[in-house]
Structure formats: C-alpha cells, structure tokens
C-alpha cells in the first residue's frame, strides 16, 4: 500500500512537468491584432448586457434600488446610448448631443433588447470597418477637449459598460435573482 502511495506521489509530481514540456513544444498563439482585441472586449461586454436585457423579468424593468437611481431599463439604455460616443465619431458622425436620448422613447422589454443589440452591433461594425490602422486614428473628444485614439475611446466605453454591468448585477441580487453570467455553465 505504501508503495502504491509512493508511486502515485511521484507520478503526480512528474505529470505537471511533462505537460509543461509539451506546451513548450507548441508555438504560442499569436497576439490578437489591435482591432481584434478591441472587438473581442466590445463583444464580450455586449454579450453580457444583451443576456441581462433578455433575461431580466419585464415586470421588474422599472426596478430602482432607490428612487433617485436609474431603473434597470434606464441602466441598459444609458450604457447602450453611451456606445454611440464611440460609434458616431468612428463612423464620421457627430457625437451625441444628449446623454440618454432613448430613455423616454423605449419602454418595453422588446424595444430595449433590440436597442441594446443594435448599439453593440453598430459598435462592432465600426471597429471592423476601421481595422487596425483605424483604431490608431485620433479625434478630438469635445467633452474632454483632448485628442484621443479611437481604440482608447472604445476601451473607455467598454469600461463604462462594465461599470453598468456591475450595477445591474446588484439589481439582480436584490431581487433574489442570479445574473446569467453567474449561473453554472452547462
């Protein structure tokens, strides 16, 4: 019995080294191109917010943790409206002139879901159209009165969406729900 334990112990200590040697023989995967890296992050946060928009019960879409805060619906619309602060300049359009133009227009869950999907699809299309060289183009950010690279602006909006994703996780939890991303994977 002790011999079996000793053999098993030696095997367990050797296996990681063998796996590391095998991994060293394979060439590492190349880094994503600059535009592909932006696109991957853009699509990832978009996927998470779309899943929430589709999943959250419609009868709770107007839920607010406190009266002065945005509702679940307004949070989604704010994040989606904000995407156009990247998409518009990336596609040669003017920056949006108001913060949340859709919040008084889109009321039903189906309208909100469609808009969240559209805002992320529009941004993804702009990133693809710009490509690597386009992500290095600079624009003047009228709100910060500074020059900014389009890729950096995209990352700012990705971060912004991530912040709202975190807030929406709280909306789920205080309603006794589990966000889609936190559920066990099948």
From TrEMBL:
SUPFAM superfamilies recorded: DinB/YfiT-like putative metalloenzymes (SSF109854)
Keyword Signal found: yes
Signal peptide: 1-19
Keywords: Signal
Renumbered residue ranges of the record's region Disordered: 86-106
UniProt domain DinB-like: residue ranges: 47-168
Protein name as catalogued: DinB family protein
Protein source organism: Candidatus Acidiferrum panamense
